[in-house]
Amino acid sequence: MLLLGDASLLVSPAQAQEPSAAPPAPGPSAQAVSTTTPAAVFYATATAIPIDRGPWVLGEVILFSGDKVAAEPSWRDRVRGRRGMLYTKADISNDIDSLNSLKKFDQVESLLFEMPDTPVPEEYRSVSVSTNQVRLVYRLAVKPEPATKAPAEKSPTPPAAVSGIVLTPTAYRGAGRYTTPGMGLDFNACYFIGRLYGHNSFENSVRKTNYIDRLGVWMLSAEGKMQVQSEGRFRPAMAVGARGHLLLRDAPQPTVNTPTVSVKVSQETTRAVSDAYIAASKSIKGVRVTAGYMMGSTGDLPGQLTEFLAPQALEFYAGRKGDRTWSRSMPFASILYLPKPQYPLGVEFIKFNGASLNPMLVNFKLGYFFHLNFDVSYLRFNGGYDILGTFQFRYNHFPRR
To answer: What is the DSSP letter of 368?
Structure first.
């Protein structure tokens, strides 16, 4: 409700009727605005007076919005007039400008009506153009409310990257929100910090178990892919891509020991390798399964992760003089699940076809259990295995979400 003046004359907008397009017209003596008098009835029964003269003495100030008395206090505060004040045409213009500054109205119109049996006070009779007080009415045409947009549905896809596991890619891009074919660009850093535990069965080895040995192998990667087929109800998503890796060592490999000799393993501290791949991925009840095939010099990686696959170890332990562990054909598979957005849970398998001692690398994405970015790798080969501790960081450069 909104009336400016005597509080006893307040009108309840809830009891007003529907708006009417009837214009104000002169009529019988004005009646006091009651809780049952709509604006159209009030205009028809009130006596309108010209607004181009003045000044007048205000008896009431009313704001109508449509056919109801306006009930917004902030609108009332924009009108300076109060009961008993001497008001001029300039004052009314100022009120209109103040109301328009709210930017809530298409139009603000002012009207004046005489109030019978309410003579102006003695001190204003010589200046007022009317012998009775007046009712000042502002008709406000409120702008229609803009259509509200439906709230965007929250994507069920978590923010964690699903474009790759640890060392293997998937056919997805970014965080999996992009299901249509397109380009993707990832950067990945994987750090094999050291061997947690290892066991071997080589006859000539001095120690059958090894643990807490430093490796210090960085694998920094840049990967570009193109999803060539989107995922459907039955069909998998498919992608092709290429990757470049930079292998860095910040610690030497452990020494190869035999009963008669101790040989320091020689290795390159910096090396560039690369591969190309094809991958197919399918989400089955929230579990993303991927299978694919890589070709390239990335197959040289196992020889960097354990001294038992270095050329010296192959000669002393496996009797393969002049041999080295390398592969150019690597089938891979992975399973990825996201129980929490921040902690992906996954496992990947990489088989290095044709490499000496038939190595296979299994990387576990276990951040969900550790609540930190620490993972475990299992490197198996003919004659033993090593369990490695790793850190891995994946950054989706495109698409960013």
So the answer is: H
Q: Which helix (H) or strand (E) holds 189?
A: strand 182-200
Q: pLDDT band at residue 279, thresholds of 50, 70 and 90?
A: very high
Q: Pairing between strand 375-381 and 237-249?
A: unpaired
* Mean pLDDT taken over the chain: 82
In contact, 60 and 136? CB cutoff 8 Å: yes
The span from the CA of 88 to the CA of 83, in Å, is 14
For residues 115 and 136, is the Cβ–Cβ distance under 8 A?
no
Helix (H, G, I), strand (E, B) or coil at 303: helix
First to last CA, the chain: 49
Is 0.85 surpassed by the pTM of this model?
no
Tell me phi and psi for residue 196, to 5 degrees: -80, -40
192 vs 219: CA distance, rounded Å: 8
- Count the alpha carbons within 13 Å of 221 in the hemisphere toward its beta carbon: 30
253 burial (CB, 10 Å; 0-12 / 13-18 / 19+) is buried
pLDDT in tens, 64-96: 887 788 878 888 888 988 888 989 989 999 999
Checking if the pLDDT of 390 tops 90, the result is: yes
What is the rounded distance in angstroms from the CA atom of residue 185 to the CA atom of residue 172? 11
Q: Hey, how many other C-beta atoms are within 10 angstroms of the C-beta on 238?
A: 19
Percent above pLDDT 70 for the chain = 81
